[in-house]
Amino acid sequence: MTRFVGVTRVAGVTRFAGMKDSCRIINDGASSTGPMNLFRELDPRTTLVVWGFHCVLLASISRYDVSKTLLLGAFPVFAFLAMNLRIQPFLRRLRIVVPFILLMVLANVWFDPSPVALRGIGQMPSGLLTGVVLASKAAVSILSLYVLEQTIPLDRLCTGLRGLRVPDALVDQLLFLHRYGLVVAAEADTMRRARDLRSIGKQGRGLLETTRLLGTFFLRCHDRSRRIHRSMLARGFSGSLPLPPSSLLTVRDFAWGGTLVTIFLISRWYP
Amino acid sequence: MNLPRISLDAVSLQYPCGTRALHGVHLQISAGSAFGIVGPNGAGKSTLLNMMCGFCQPTTGTVHIGDVLVERRSLDHIRSLLGVLFQHADDQLFQATVIDDIGFGLRNRGIPYAQAESQAREILRRFDLESIAQKSPFQLSSGQKRFAALCGVLVMEPQVLLLDEPTSDLDPRNRRRFLDVFRKLSMTRLVISHDLDFVWDACDTVAILDKGQVVAQGPTRELLQNESLLLQHSLELPLRLQ
To answer: Alpha helix (H) ranges present in chain A?
Structure first.
């Protein structure tokens, strides 16, 4: 039953609100309209299992083993090239974590200066070697996550997680994080603009003002989230976000999943 | 189909801090009618709407949608009858794409994903908005957001439609189109608005709310021409009458 007829055309100019990096990063995520490829065609459960396996094996590599780190790193690099992904979003993500990685590398060098002998290179500080492995692992992990994010849209990823029996509470948290991420970024951007427009030089940008701004930001986020929650309740939301149902795994999923996991295992334990 | 009426009987609301938001509100909104509530800022209009949705409970008095009393136990049923268009369309559109957002309520009702999507596409087609189906709500203009939010509400075929400041972010052309859509709806409609011209065009009956009390109620054309009454409650004549 429909109680409205003959709706006329709605005019409106499409525009994109200028948002800062935080928002752009969220928007860089995979879209269902992106170019098709093998990874996107696989069932999300298969993709998740393969990626999970890759992460566990990467974490299990000894802190002195550069070669195996690079060998396992070949997989996300291959996927990155095969999918013809853009490098800038990856570099933006990397830029966020680079200070932390550098800090850890420096701490390694500082606390572990004992020399270690390397075939073909000679001696080098043990801390520097572990630092290099640490930095490589971090870069490979971020690339791997970026490729995963570009491979399947978040909704499909969460469908995959539900299919793997991950508790609903965790999956919903992930979905909310994604949805509200945009909302929070827009709210922060509005507040920043409002402050900037009324700041002269460094006036109004001090620590005290910024602290107050953060406090107000949290209150505004709380208020906004309450309003969004109400609008969800009004449309029948009962605690769990609906997702598309999982489909049956195909032979191709098993074949590709098995092949990739075997390659990872060989890369990890090959002498 | 029997459309429900809305009745508020001696409704009062007092916040824990002691502020009285509503005081002894009596309202009868007949089935299938278009009813407007106008009033100055802080009069309690949005609180009244929240109460009808069950987001807050009255301190005293009762709210009925049809024969159903609005209380915690009946919320699921009440919300299946109501469609609410909130003041800020941004709060209503939170899914990754417009099509996902419009299908959100249907999926919550247990309608299969594919069917929900096809119904969402159908309503977008009716509003000539297919081009925005795959867009992120953040990429829409205010007018498109408002209509997308309306699609998300109407696709659920509510029997009662509650609208909070529906024209606040619309340009004159979109406002006229919104009015056209509104007039063609046949469910019980309640509009809360400062836009007295919109209320003049859209509603049969209107109530003036001030300081949490209904101070006047009657036919729209009669009440909104009473300049002294409007001025007394911080309102002005609709622009067309000025």
So the answer is: 21-27, 38-41, 44-60, 66-82, 87-111, 126-151, 154-163, 168-197, 207-234, 251-269
Q: What share of chain B is helix, strand, coil (3-state, %, to 5)?
A: 40, 25, 35
Residue in A15, A153, A183 nearest the CB of B94: A183
* Structure-block tokens of residue B30: 């007949």
All residues of chain B having their beta carbon less than 8 Å from the beta carbon of residue A243 are 113
Inform me whether the C-beta atom of residue B107 falls under 8 Å from chain A C-beta atoms: yes
Neighbours of B83 (CB within 10 A): 25
DSSP B172-229: HHHHHHHHHHHHH--SEEEEE-S-HHHHHHH-SEEEEEETTEEEEEEEHHHHTT-HHH
pLDDT tens for chain A, 271 residues: list them. 433 333 333 333 333 333 444 444 444 444 444 444 667 778 889 989 999 999 999 999 888 888 888 888 888 898 888 888 888 888 888 888 889 988 988 898 888 888 877 777 777 888 888 888 999 999 999 999 898 888 888 878 888 898 888 888 898 888 888 778 877 888 888 888 888 878 777 777 788 888 888 999 999 888 888 888 999 999 888 888 877 777 788 898 899 889 999 999 988 887 6
Q: Tell me the chain B residues in contact with residue A245 when contact means C-beta distances shorter than 8 Å.
A: 112-113
Q: Which of B155, B57, B95, B41 is closest to A228 using CA atoms?
A: B95
Q: Which two tokens stand for residue B9?
A: 């009987």
Residue B9: strand pairing partners: B62
Nearest to A182 among B105, B109, B138 (CB): B138
Question: What residues of chain A lie within 8 A of the CB of B96, using their CB?
Answer: 153-155, 178-179
**Residue-range domains of chain B with CATH:** 6-233 (3.40.50.300)
